[in-house]
Design brief:
The protein is built from twelve helices and nine strands. With about 280 residues, the chain is an alpha/beta fold. The chain is globular and about 55 Å long. The chain binds ligand C2E and magnesium ion (3 copies).
Length: about 280
């Protein structure tokens, strides 16, 4: 009957609710444990010259976590949990240490690989991040320009004066700032001047719609991406298109003057050995 059908649906709904909150709780407590252990690693997604995909100009470090019980857990799941529960500082510090160890090794071997590291905007609050970053660079003898900090535009929207000053201190020290997922944050453009970024990363959601097959040449995404490229050029910022998956998207970006790209068309995030093979190290 309709009535029992409705009851079924409600109990299904309760089931899935229970599942998600239970899952969140399990992932969160595993995460808290993992932060005291060594179950994280970085993979490196090549960043390439848009007009020559074989010219790798750096990489984005992406965090990977394998829990002994829960298996592989995506950063898309655990990063928001860390952010909502006050673990972002510990997580960002862990990532920065992993980065510094790897970059220190490359520097010693004479390899020059600019690496982007994703940082939660919340970590820019407070007095811890800047000295930690500078101490790690110093200890591992890493030239600061080999580190780019990626901060999402959404995270930057609620940026306080303190966060802005911290970013300025990092920029003064030579660390570069990259605005991630650009175009998804609806923020005012004034902050682009204040935060002194050196790079804009155009969000994958726009790149996904650059295909001739669903845009026939002049869809909204195309016009928006063209406007972003023009804005970046007038502010003298580098441009990176993220999430390039097809030849059509790549061709469009070459034609419209984007500088750099990342995406599965060229490579996903690679384990260190595979990345080193790719760059001929
Ligand atoms: P993001 O910084 O925008 O990173 C790009 C994400 O898109 C990565 O997913 C990458 O694997 C994926 N991707 C790259 N190319 C393509 C493509 O061509 N097609 C598709 N469909 N996807 C592509 P991942 O590694 O799962 O990371 C998801 C998000 O988690 C990242 O988005 C970033 O916001 C966050 N994240 C990853 N690593 C870290 C980290 O070390 N610290 C912090 N705070 N956040 C991180
Ligand atoms: Mg990123
Ligand atoms: Mg991104
Ligand atoms: Mg994105």
């Amino acid at each position: 009957s309709a009535k029992s059908n409705g009851r079924d649906r409600i109990s299904h709904f309760k089931e899935s609710l229970r599942f998600t909150s239970e899952r969140r709780l399990r992932v969160f407590s595993a995460l808290r444990k993992a932060l005291c252990e060594d179950s994280f690693r970085l993979v490196f997604q090549p960043k390439f010259d848009i007009s020559d995909r074989h010219r790798i100009i750096g990489a984005e470090a992406l965090l990977r976590w394998r829990d002994p019980q829960l298996g592989d857990i995506s950063p898309a799941e655990f990063v928001p949990l860390a952010e909502a529960n006050g673990l972002y500082n510990a997580l960002d510090l862990r990532v920065l240490k992993l980065f510094a160890r790897q970059q220190g090794d490359w520097v010693r071997r004479g390899l020059r690989v600019p690496v982007s590291v994703n940082i939660s905007a919340r970590s820019l609050q407070g007095t811890e991040l800047v000295p930690s970053v500078l101490a790690l660079l110093d200890y591992h003898e890493i030239p600061p320009e080999l580190l780019l900090l990626e901060i999402t535009e959404t995270g930057l929207m609620n940026c306080t004066g303190e966060a802005t000053r911290n970013l300025a201190d990092l920029a003064d020290a030579g660390v570069r700032i990259s605005i991630d997922d650009f175009g998804t944050g609806y923020s005012s453009l004034a902050y682009l001047q204040k935060l002194r970024p050196s790079e804009l990363k155009i969000d994958r959601s726009f790149i996904a719609h650059l295909d001739a097959r669903d845009g026939n040449g002049d869809g909204a995404s195309e016009r928006i991406v063209r406007a972003m490229l023009a804005l970046a050029e007038s502010l003298q910022l580098s441009t990176v298109a993220e999430g390039i998956e097809t030849e059509e998207q790549l061709a469009w970006l070459v034609e419209n003057g984007c500088e750099f790209g990342q995406g599965f068309l060229v490579s996903p995030g690679l384990e260190i050995a595979a990345f080193e093979t790719l760059i001929g190290a």
